[in-house]
Amino acid sequence: MDPHKTAVRTASAPAPAHSFSQGVRKGPFLQVAGQGPMDPATNAHIAPGDVKAQTLRTLENVRAILEAGGASVEDVLMFRVYLTKREDFAAMNDAYAEFVVRHVPSGIPPARTTVFTGLPHEEMLVEIDALAVTD
């Protein structure tokens, strides 16, 4: 076992339903596992059909894990966004931009990739993961 590799866990984001960590930290790197639009208090998906609300909740879940791992949204180099519907891109992008403006004081937004794909739960319109690096 590598003593420099640690699992990141927080009750402020949904518990993983499978055999993976919410996040993994090794040195200055923190990888946040894909998060969805779940309320961490209930582990229930929120806002059926509303990709903007789901995107904001998903990003707040990512942020909670970043903070539990000693990082912030400012430290994110890359977000990967997975959407189920191409027509949801504009609403997701608006919510994403609102979140980044609020949480990245440097004004230098992280890099991002957006992929259209199927997701594990039908009610999920979006899933997002992040890679952060701290000093």
Automatic annotation (TrEMBL):
One GO molecular-function entry: deaminase activity
Region (Disordered): 1-22
GO CC annotation, single: cytosol
Entries under SUPFAM superfamilies matching the protein: YjgF-like
InterPro entries tied to this protein: RutC-like_sf, YjgF/YER057c/UK114
Record-given protein name: RidA family protein
Organism: Actinospica durhamensis
